[in-house]
TrEMBL record:
UniProt key word Transport: yes
Domain of life: Eukaryota
Taxonomic source organism: Salix dunnii
Name of the protein this chain belongs to: Ran guanine nucleotide release factor
GO molecular function: guanyl-nucleotide exchange factor activity; small GTPase binding
Keyword Transport appears in the UniProt entry: yes
GO CC terms in record: nucleus
Signal sequence, start to end: none
Annotated family: Belongs to the MOG1 family.
Length: 197
């Protein structure tokens, strides 16, 4: 049985780091990823983990920011049947010597792979954390995608199989909820100059 080995992973050239399983491969080795994103995927489970740096949205209040970004993500991906499953309150955590506001939200939605149509939509659970680095005017998103139901028409079905995916723990892997918590709780800024002056 496989066992998840987790390690500290460099992001944005090492300016940021986080901890998550080594089974997640860097997507930039396969295809172009925008400079403001770091994307990792476990193709054998069709799970992904994305880190994204965005300009701070000052008009979005702290308490609702994770939900706002999750709904924005659903709109961007033309998702079907978006449902908010859970949202956290505001938590302040230290990153280095800076206090950062963190909120999280979990949602379910139907999304299609890159160029596939709605008939090939998979149902995914999406975990999203918003870390508000107000000192450098940045909203950091940590987003984890976990398939709940794979469409037989999805390109994922060829690798993962259609229907309900095998539970992660049954395969010796950390459940995506745990991968997400690990990545968020171990998020570190190693070089603040990444954000400019």
């Amino acid at each position: 049985m496989a066992v998840d080995i987790c390690t500290d992973r460099p992001l944005y050239g090492g300016s940021i780091s986080s901890t998550f399983p080594v089974r997640f491969q860097d997507v930039s080795n396969i295809r172009q990823v925008p400079d403001h994103q770091e994307a990792f995927v476990d193709p054998s489970r069709d799970e992904s983990l994305i880190f994204e740096l965005l300009d701070l949205k000052p008009d979005v209040n702290d308490s609702g920011s994770a939900v706002w970004f999750l709904q924005d993500l659903a709109n961007e991906q033309d998702a079907q049947g978006f449902t908010l499953v859970e949202q956290s309150g505001v938590v302040e955590v230290p990153i280095g010597n800076v206090s950062v506001v963190v909120t999280t939200a979990i949602g379910k939605m139907g999304v299609s792979k890159a160029r596939q149509g709605r008939e090939a939509q998979n149902v995914v659970q999406v975990y999203l954390a918003n870390l508000r680095l107000k000192n450098v005017g940045t909203d950091v998103l940590v987003v984890a995608y976990e398939p709940v139901l794979i469409s037989p028409l999805s390109e994922s079905a060829a690798t993962v199989g259609a229907g309900l995916p095998a539970p992660a723990a049954q395969s010796g892997f950390l459940p995506m909820a745990e991968v997400f918590k690990l990545a968020v709780s171990n998020f570190k800024v190693n070089d603040w100059s990444l954000f400019g002056n």
